[in-house]
């Protein structure tokens, strides 16, 4: 049975399947074991929903992620990133009570982590690992194109770039499964139809 529940916290309707207990704890709602933040819109997984449909969306967090991603690596020029003592590179972006930190190691092959903090407490994290597969193509060209793709991050996919992005001989593709609270996915870059770069990512809400 499908029901609508009006959150006393956010005022948004939460739509869910079957009857279940609603537990309020630390400003969150738990419905059927799923965590829902305040100020969010929940869409139950009805019938033939698109594969890459976000089941739940925290509007504030999504908007913040988009602003942060567009303002850090994707728009970085030259030495705008901070190099730390352990040789990792770091980008920081803050907006109100939220802070975004992207820290990674490596270059043509790399691994890193993005964390969102609310009042200095981690609330969301994403780990990623990627590599340029064809070493005959310059790193500058590949990552220059990647940054253009990442600047097109969307509300429906606030993890990396859009589902598809093409420019000249380069094409970008991002696929994921899950939702903002728990997800995993991959992104690839093709040059003249040949895969030259691949990255995997996963993450979710930290409770």
Mean pLDDT, nearest integer? 78
As a percent range, the share of helical residues equals: 10-25%
Specify the overall morphology. globular
Largest sheet: 9 strands, antiparallel
Low-confidence stretches: 1-57
Question: How many strands in all?
Answer: 16
Q: How are the strands of the biggest sheet laid out side by side?
A: 8-9-10-11-12-16-15-14-13
- What is the rounded distance between the termini? 28 Å
Structure overview:
The protein has 207 residues and is mainly β. Helix content is 12%, strand content 50%. The strands form four sheets. The protein has a nine-stranded antiparallel β-sheet. The protein is globular, with a radius of gyration of 18 Å.
Secondary structure elements and their pairing?
Elements: E1 2-6, E2 13-17, E3 22-25, E4 28-31, E5 34-36, E6 40-42, E7 56-58, H1 59-71, E8 82-83, E9 89-95, E10 98-106, E11 109-118, E12 121-132, H2 139-150, E13 164-167, E14 170-179, E15 182-191, E16 194-205
Antiparallel strand pairs: 1-2, 3-4, 4-5, 6-7, 8-9, 9-10, 10-11, 11-12, 12-16, 13-14, 14-15, 15-16
What's the gist of this structure?
12% of the residues lie in helices and 50% in strands. The protein has 207 residues and is mainly β. A 9-stranded antiparallel β-sheet has the order 8-9-10-11-12-16-15-14-13.
List keywords for this structure.
207 residues; mainly beta; 3-stranded antiparallel beta sheet; 12% helix; disordered N terminus
């Amino acid at each position: 049975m499908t029901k609508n529940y009006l959150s006393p916290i956010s005022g948004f309707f939460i739509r869910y399947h079957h009857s279940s207990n609603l537990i309020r704890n630390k400003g969150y709602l738990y419905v059927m074991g799923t965590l829902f933040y305040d100020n969010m819109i929940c869409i139950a997984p009805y019938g033939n929903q698109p594969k890459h449909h976000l089941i739940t969306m925290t509007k504030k967090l999504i908007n913040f992620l988009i602003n942060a991603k567009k303002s850090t690596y994707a728009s970085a020029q030259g030495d705008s990133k901070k190099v730390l003592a352990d040789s990792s590179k770091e980008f920081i972006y803050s907006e109100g009570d939220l802070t975004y930190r992207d820290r990674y190691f490596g270059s043509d092959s790399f691994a890193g982590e993005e964390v969102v903090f609310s009042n200095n407490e981690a609330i969301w994290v994403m780990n990623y690992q990627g590599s340029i597969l064809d070493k005959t193509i310059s790193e500058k060209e590949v990552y220059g194109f990647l940054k253009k793709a990442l600047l097109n991050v969307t509300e429906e996919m606030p993890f990396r770039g859009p589902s598809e992005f093409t420019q000249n001989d380069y094409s970008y593709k991002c696929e994921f499964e899950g939702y903002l609270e728990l997800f995993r996915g991959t992104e690839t870059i093709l040059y003249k139809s040949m895969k030259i770069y691949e990255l995997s990512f996963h993450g979710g809400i930290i409770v």
